[in-house]
Design brief:
This protein has about 400 residues and is of the alpha/beta class. It contains 16 helices and 12 strands. It has one domain: Aldolase class I (TIM Barrel, Alpha-Beta Barrel).
Length: about 400
């Protein structure tokens, strides 16, 4: 009598993971962990230079690039370079206080970490590395809707961290409401509504590089593996690179934005969000003083003057130029923050002297993340804190309230 053999798990073919294969490979592979950050990385520009060497060109260009002919972001950089200070002497600045608040959340420094999408692309630990670095310094980190870790999971790893959540409004409003509820349960301190993405900007660097989500292995990327083996190995042995709150596509990030985010976003949606969220709201992407005045009257706590780092509307105005006229119209009805073009502590102090209540940084900490993961992000924070402290002492002010527009001008 014969018996038909049952199929077992040993009979079935399976595709081994890279993690299973690597122990069998008798070839010296690079250390999967990021080497120690040298002390010679002393400025944000030093960090940017190191970042450009640590990751594939398409990844660096995704962070470093902007829309159209890329003049918008360059103009923001140039404007900060044209700022000149007039210090106050004989003021006594033995101790310097950098503390302030962002929509009622206390911060030991006048800058917070802005939301950035698809952050595990820059380093395999992604948003978690950034949030850990921020939490270790007790500063605010803003998780993006387009993050690679969910708001619930991130909050569970960092209880007590000062977390904001950046929100895009979706075509499917029920998804937006579900996401708000999850964020509320997870204990996020504020919502940051982004209003400048009716469609995606024209990011030509990504198109020229054939950049896609997730990255595809092609003859070009195989060649790149030889130049950046650590980045590629970490990508291949970690969990899949994907968005945590939405489904990835085979196209660019711009393709995804056009298919998911709602171009019909209007003031009614802001009013709806105000009714649906009890905590503070920061509106990001404000690009005119008149819009700022209208939005502030809708009961939001803060306005973030931003052109999306030059990644959306090409030839838009530099946020720094908007601070004074916005303050004149809004007064003290809402806090005013800015981002875009900030590369140093001096840039941050210039923004505050012109009337901003605080700044958000994006690219600087992403340079740190690409350069050396969590350690790189922490170094960026330390660089900015040191620069702010020294520059405040040289300006003759011991607290942020001592900064005023008489101390700054643009030449």
């Amino acid at each position: 009598m014969t018996h038909e053999a049952k199929e077992t798990r040993f009979d079935r073919l399976s595709r081994p993971s890279i993690a299973e294969i690597l122990p069998m490979v008798d070839i010296k592979l690079p250390n999967l962990f990021t080497p120690k950050l040298p002390k010679s990385v002393a400025t944000i520009n030093d960090m940017r230079a190191r970042a450009s060497r640590m990751v594939p060109k398409s990844v660096f260009d995704y962070v470093d690039g902007s829309a159209g002919d890329e003049r918008t972001y360059q103009n923001s950089l140039d404007l900060f370079q044209r700022v000149r200070f007039t210090p106050k002497q004989l003021r006594g600045v033995d101790g310097v206080d950098l503390s302030t608040n962002f929509v009622g959340v206390q911060s030991p420094v006048p800058f917070a970490l802005a939301p950035t999408g698809f952050t595990r692309l820059m380093h395999h630990m992604g948003e978690l590395a950034v949030a850990r670095a921020a939490s270790s310094e007790d500063i605010i980190y803003t998780l993006s809707t387009m993050g690679t870790i969910s708001p619930d999971e991130l909050a569970s790893y960092l209880p007590g961290a000062k977390l904001f959540f950046q929100l895009y409004v979706w075509r499917d409003r029920s998804f937006t409401l579900d996401l708000l509820e999850r964020v509320k349960r997870a204990g996020y301190r504020a919502i940051m509504l982004t209003i400048d993405t009716a469609t995606a900007g024209l990011r030509y660097r990504d198109e020229r590089n054939g950049f896609s989500i997730p990255p595809k292995i092609t003859p070009k990327t195989i060649a790149d593996m030889a130049l950046h083996p650590r980045w590629w190995i970490n990508l291949l042995v970690r969990p899949p690179l994907e968005f945590a709150t939405l489904t990835s596509t085979d196209g660019t990030v711009s393709d995804l934005v056009r298919s998911v985010f709602d171009p019909r976003l209007n003031f009614d949606d802001l009013a709806f969000l105000r009714e649906s969220w009890e905590g503070p709201i920061v509106v990001k992407g404000v690009q005119s003083a008149k819009d700022a005045e209208t939005i502030s009257k809708m009961g939001v706590e803060a306005l973030l003057l931003s052109n999306h780092g030059g990644r959306q509307l090409d030839r838009s105005l530099e946020p720094l130029r908007l601070v004074e006229p916005t303050r004149q119209l809004v007064g003290d009805d809402a806090q005013i923050f800015i981002d875009g073009g900030i590369r140093s502590g001096s840039d941050i102090l210039a923004a505050l002297a012109f009337g901003a209540d605080g700044v958000f940084i994006g690219r600087p900490y992403l340079y740190g993340l690409m350069a050396n993961g969590q350690e790189g992000v922490k170094r960026v924070i330390e660089i900015l804190k040191k620069e702010i402290t020294v520059q405040m002492q040289l300006l003759g002010v011991s607290s942020l309230s001592g900064l005023d527009k008489e101390m700054v001008k643009v030449i």
